């Protein structure tokens, strides 16, 4: 340790060791709430303040934009702005975008490539597969995604594809890639796959990046996939100056190709790896921790870990059975409202967590009824709304005019007298000439299939987009706002809404558009992005969350997946029932249900880890509930309590809420007894 450096006192010896260790690769393996993320933040501060690293030499990778933002905030408080200048704290995907923007030419892209989200990607697959069977489409999309994440190219996929459906998927995979290439577009998986592949194949690029990334830190390492593993390996090279932190019990992205084996692989790939374990949990009271430990003990474990807390026993965990999801939602809303007063807490101290996005609607309604402020994260719904996709199609076209899907959406919304026949003629010409639709406008001229009357609105549109392109490329973040306003006015989008819809929905949609534009303007200024850079930024936000503008004091609604890494004083975990948590794939878009016993066991284990993640978000109180009946496709279905409730040692049927001492050590039991006695 450099002389005169005082590490923050609020690090325990093991954490301190992890922060100070700089002799090679380091893995911190520890349970929830043990301060893994804190180690990363403190280590960045240590590198910058005491070890002479410049900001631009340090890269920290997190799992979500929100986590990246929070980490940046914390570092701002620890390190002088001048010292941290150039520091990268981002998601794997944002780093991928930056990498590809700089190295675009090496992978045959222009730097203003489009990023297609899964809705865009699905539309392409639908065209290639020529089916509307949604389950089949999603299955193919997932297969392609898994191949990409495992760095399996179509040629290799062809060799391993045995079933007719996999063979079909290979065919789609090939054409899908070709289509993306034609549009100068990449999908989310490509954001990591292309950099990893380029780094592996091109020594010059590899050396340049290795010289640049002097120290790398990775949070939530258990959820990295093969591509991300290789990316980390390539970026850090033989020097292997990195710290990874993770918890195998919190691996919840196997369905996206993540593999906890990456944790084990580190220990074999880097023989000199320093392994550090943390055992004290600083987040949760003992009852919560005991429940978490109980549940996860039903999974086979890769690594032996212990976890204890000295934050006191805490209140009994409540387990409630509800008659329906409406009643469950009402009851949660009511409880939050009264507990806020009783506990003198803030709205933001409460979180409601659920397995599936669809559960949010009923909860939102109940909170609105009681006028409780809330914010939702983990949903993609906002960016999937028609009006938002309309506006974004313009922006995407402006940034990348090879993006044919965006062209088609923009040119036909609002309608400007360009009909199907016109577009068809344009499309045939474009593909014959190997041009994008946008380029085709300017060279097609009138033909026997395209009259001057048809051509004119196309050209007007083309010139309009070109004018904005010229400005957008030249101007700054400040001007981005003006450009957005002018764009909206020029296309008369508000009028289009009121012309085509009833007043109420038109008003709603226009509000959403204004919200989007307001958010974009703030983002442009905050991160100093011009319109071009902004467009790529948006695509990334759509991926996991859009929770920038969290209301300052609001109850948090979140999926379990999106709650990873976060903590709340009071947690309500709803819908803890068989079929939902564990989610057993009764949905029609599910492929794993047919995949046999072993796959099912794996799946239950992943769901159990998800349950563990949920429980361990709670700092002080935890409330579980499940519904005896739930509406599914307009039918009421009888539900059973989740097996996880029994695994925690609780009984599930009691509507009054039960408490048991299961999972507590003798000392903790005694503490609990004392507490009960004090109360009475
Ligand atoms: N040494 C410490 N002293 C006091 N508080 C600590 C200490 N280490 C961590 N904490 C606090 O404990 C909480 C959990 O820490 P952190 O979020 O870093 O854990 P984690 O291991 O990353 O959890 P998760 O597995 O959920 O991501 C935070 O509120 C953090 O500030
Ligand atoms: Mg963490």
Automatic annotation (TrEMBL):
Domain of life: Bacteria
Biological process annotations from GO: DNA replication; recombinational repair
Cellular-component GO terms for this entry: cytosol
Domain UvrD-like helicase C-terminal: 286-565
Enzyme Commission number(s) of this protein: 5.6.2.4
Coiled coil: none
Subunit structure and binding partners: Homodimer.
Protein task: Rep helicase is a single-stranded DNA-dependent ATPase involved in DNA replication; it can initiate unwinding at a nick in the DNA. It binds to the single-stranded DNA and acts in a progressive fashion along the DNA in the 3' to 5' direction.
Protein name: ATP-dependent DNA helicase Rep
Source species of the chain: Pusillimonas minor
Gene name linked to the record: rep
């Amino acid at each position: 340790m450099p002389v005169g450096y005082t590490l923050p006192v609020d690090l325990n010896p093991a954490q301190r060791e992890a922060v100070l260790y700089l002799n090679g690769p380091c893995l911190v393996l520890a349970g929830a709430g043990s301060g893994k993320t804190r180690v990363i933040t403190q280590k960045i501060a240590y590198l910058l303040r005491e070890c002479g690293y410049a900001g631009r030499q340090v890269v920290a990778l997190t799992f979500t934009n929100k986590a990246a933002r929070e980490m940046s905030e914390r570092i701002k408080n620890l390190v002088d702005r001048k010292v941290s200048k150039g520091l990268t704290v981002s998601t794997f995907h944002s780093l991928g975008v930056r990498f590809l923007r700089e190295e675009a030419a090496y992978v045959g892209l222009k730097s203003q490539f489009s990023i297609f989200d899964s809705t865009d990607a699905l539309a392409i697959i639908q065209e290639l597969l020529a089916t509307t069977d949604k389950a089949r489409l999603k299955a193919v999309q997932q297969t392609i995604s898994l191949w990409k994440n495992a760095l399996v190219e179509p040629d290799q996929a062809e060799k391993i594809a045995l079933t007719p459906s996999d063979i079909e998927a290979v065919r789609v995979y090939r054409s899908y890639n070709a289509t993306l290439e034609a549009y100068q577009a990449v999908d989310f998986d490509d954001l990591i796959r292309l950099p990893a592949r380029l780094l592996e194949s091109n020594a010059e690029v590899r050396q340049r990046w290795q010289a640049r990334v002097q120290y790398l830190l990775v949070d939530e390492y258990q959820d990295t996939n093969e591509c991300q593993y290789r990316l980390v390996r390539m970026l850090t090279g033989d020097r292997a100056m990195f710290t990874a932190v993770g918890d195998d019990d919190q691996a919840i992205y196997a369905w996206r190709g993540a593999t906890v084996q990456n944790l084990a692989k580190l220990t074999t790939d880097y023989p000199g790896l320093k392994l550090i374990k943390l055992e004290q949990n600083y987040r949760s009271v003992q009852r919560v921790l005991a429940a978490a430990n109980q549940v996860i003990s039903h999974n086979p474990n890769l690594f032996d870990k212990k976890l204890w807390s000295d934050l006191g026993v805490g209140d009994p965990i409540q387990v409630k059975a509800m008659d329906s999801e409406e009643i469950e939602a009402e009851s949660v809303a009511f409880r939050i409202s009264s507990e806020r007063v009783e506990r003198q807490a803030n709205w933001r101290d409460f979180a409601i967590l659920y397995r599936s996005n669809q559960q949010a609607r009923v909860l939102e309604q109940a909170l609105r009824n009681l006028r409780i402020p809330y914010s939702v994260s983990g949903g993609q719904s906002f960016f999937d709304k028609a009006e938002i996709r309309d506006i974004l199609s313009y922006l995407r076209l402006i940034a990348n005019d090879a993006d044919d899907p965006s062209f088609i959406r923009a040119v036909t919304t609002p309608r400007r007298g360009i009909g199907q026949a016109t577009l068809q003629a344009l499309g045939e010409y474009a593909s014959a000439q190997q041009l994008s639709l946008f380029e085709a406008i300017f060279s097609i001229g009138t033909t026997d299939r395209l009259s001057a009357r048809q051509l004119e609105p196309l050209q007007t549109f083309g010139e309009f987009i070109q004018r904005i392109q010229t400005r957008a490329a030249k101007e700054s973040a400040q001007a981005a706002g003006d450009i957005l306003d002018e764009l909206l006015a020029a296309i008369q989008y508000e009028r289009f809404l009121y012309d085509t819809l009833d007043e109420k929905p038109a008003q709603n949609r226009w509000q959403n558009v204004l919200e989007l534009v307001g958010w974009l303007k703030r983002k442009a200024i905050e991160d100093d992005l011009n319109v071009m850079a902004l467009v790529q930024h948006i695509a990334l936000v759509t991926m996991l969350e859009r929770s920038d503008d969290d209301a300052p004091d609001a109850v948090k609604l979140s999926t379990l997946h999106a709650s990873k890494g976060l903590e709340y004083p009071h947690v309500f975990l709803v819908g803890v029932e068989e079929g939902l948590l564990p989610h057993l794939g009764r949905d029609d878009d599910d492929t794993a249900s047919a995949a046999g016993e072993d796959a099912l066991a794996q799946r239950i284990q992943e769901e159990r880890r998800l349950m563990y993640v949920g429980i361990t978000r709670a700092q002080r109180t935890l409330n579980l509930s499940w519904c005896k009946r739930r509406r599914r496709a307009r039918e009421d279905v009888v539900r059973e309590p989740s097996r996880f409730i029994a695994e925690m040692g609780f009984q599930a049927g009691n509507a009054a809420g039960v408490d048991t001492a299961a999972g507590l050590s003798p000392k903790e039991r005694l503490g609990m007894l004392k507490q009960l006695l004090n109360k009475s």
